[in-house]
Design goal:
It comes from Arsenophonus nasoniae (son-killer infecting Nasonia vitripennis). This is DNA recombination-mediator protein A. InterPro entries: DprA (IPR003488), DrpA_SLOG (IPR057666). 23% of the residues are buried. The chain has five helices and five strands. The chain is α/β, with parallel strands linked by helices. The protein has a three-stranded parallel sheet with strand order 3-4-5, with helices on one face. The two termini are 34 Å apart. The chain is 36% helix and 10% strand. Helix 4 links the parallel strand 3 (115-117) and strand 4.
Length: 186
């Protein structure tokens, strides 16, 4: 699916990644926002983009909020993928309540590498850590990219082991930028 631009009469409607990010964050800030409620809104209007679902004033407000977050966490470079636009991974549409927008930092081409998700308990035993390290080392030797969250426990152990072994990792954070992780989870 591609975005429908047939109703646009000028280039005044060029997609701005930062504006779409701000609009998507605004949608998430609405009272009662859930994966389902946001996915339902986009199902109702399948050819739209986030900036068309919030007012200009709200977008401006959230652009300022994002600038503050980027400054605070020293975010210099980021990427954004919008459903219906180029390079959006269509496999994400398989989710029960698919996301319309996601952000990333780092090397985008990792998305095209062979990968394995390694996830588990936050309160992992020493034996669990040992098994995680062994598994991840084997996967890295076979040129797999490790995909995991950033929670304490197995997720963190998987990333550390992969990086220590010279491998690649993709860290998945399932929250909007306005929701912060604990200090041990970033």
């Amino acid at each position: 699916m591609q975005l429908n631009f047939s109703s646009l009469d000028s280039f005044d409607h060029v997609i701005s990644p930062f504006e779409e990010m701000a609009a998507y964050e605004a949608l998430w800030s609405e009272n009662g926002a859930t994966f389902r409620s946001i996915a339902d809104r986009f199902r109702k209007y399948p050819d739209t983009i986030p900036s068309r679902m919030v007012t200009e004033n709200v977008r401006k407000e959230f652009k300022e909020i994002l600038k503050d977050i980027f400054d605070r966490f020293q975010v210099k470079h980021f990427g954004i993928r919008i459903h219906g636009a180029n390079e959006y991974p269509e496999k994400l549409r398989d989710a029960k309540h698919p996301i319309e927008v996601f952000y990333y930092q780092g090397w985008w081409d990792l998305i095209n590498t062979r990968s394995v998700a390694v996830v588990g308990s936050r309160r992992v035993s020493e034996e669990g850590k040992k098994r995680t390290r062994k598994l991840v080392k084997c996967l890295i030797e076979d040129n797999f990219t490790i995909v995991s969250g950033l929670a304490e426990g197995v997720d963190t152990e998987a990333h550390r082991t992969a990086l220590d072994a010279g491998g690649n990792t993709i860290a998945v954070i399932g929250t909007p930028l306005s929701h912060f992780l604990s200090k041990t989870e970033y």
